[in-house]
Design a protein that fits this description.
By secondary structure, the protein is an alpha+beta fold. The chain has helices at 66-79, 119-128, 143-156, 160-167; strands spanning 22-35, 38-50, 55-63, 82-83, 95-99, 102-108, 115-116, 133-137. The strands form two sheets. Strands 1-2-3-4 form a four-stranded antiparallel sheet. A four-stranded mixed sheet has the order 5-6-8-7.
């Protein structure tokens, strides 16, 4: 018995030109509410999303089921994505990010160091596209505070080009980030001995 007035609803098609985003669930928190019949559980998911090219955001989704909480967190993170200053594959300078009780120290590192960070800090840095960095969490262990403090630190970063434009003079980044200049030494021919 098909009804002629009912319209067929098609699911929206996902555009293929949208860039592939890096998503990572940092933490899932289970909350229990005690009611007359027992306990009622709900979940909160902290999700970090980035394009690994200087754009990163995080979201905190809450729902009755874990997959719904992750989906809500991911949607929120995509809306909250911000541009951060990445210098090559590290950051331009040392910075201390603060948020609530969370404090995160971020330091630029040489090529081949890797990401020296844990938990939420690592997730944010990977999503932003940073490959060489040193970090230390100095404050609270709360994952939301740590992720927020890392984002706060990344938003404060300024590239040498930006600072040069503000000051009106040439400013360079860390010396180990600059391309090594090839120096050619003129070759000296050995003097021919005449006997």
């Amino acid at each position: 018995m098909n009804k002629p007035n009912r319209k067929n609803k098609k699911s929206p098609e996902v555009s293929s030109d949208e860039p592939e985003l890096f998503e990572k669930v940092v933490h899932i928190n289970r909350c229990a509410k005690v009611v007359k019949g027992g306990r009622r559980f709900s979940f909160a998911a902290l999700v970090v999303v980035g394009d690994q090219n200087g754009k990163v955001g995080f979201g905190y989704g809450k729902a009755q089921m874990v997959p719904d909480a992750i989906r809500k967190g991911t949607d929120q993170a995509k809306k909250a994505m911000k541009n951060v200053a990445v210098y090559g594959d590290t950051i331009p300078h040392q910075i201390l990010g603060n948020y609530d009780g969370g404090k995160v120290l971020l330091k630029p590192a040489r090529q081949g160091t890797g990401i020296i960070a844990g938990g939420g800090v690592r997730a944010v840095l990977e999503a932003a596209g940073v490959k060489n960095i040193l970090s230390k969490s100095l404050g609270s262990n709360n994952q939301l505070s740590v992720v927020s403090a890392t984002m706060n630190g990344l938003k404060q970063l300024r590239t040498p080009k930006t600072i040069s434009a503000i000051r009106g003079e040439e400013v360079t980044g860390p010396s180990y980030m600059e391309i090594a200049k090839v120096v050619t030494v003129p070759s000296v021919e050995p003097a021919s001995s005449t006997v």
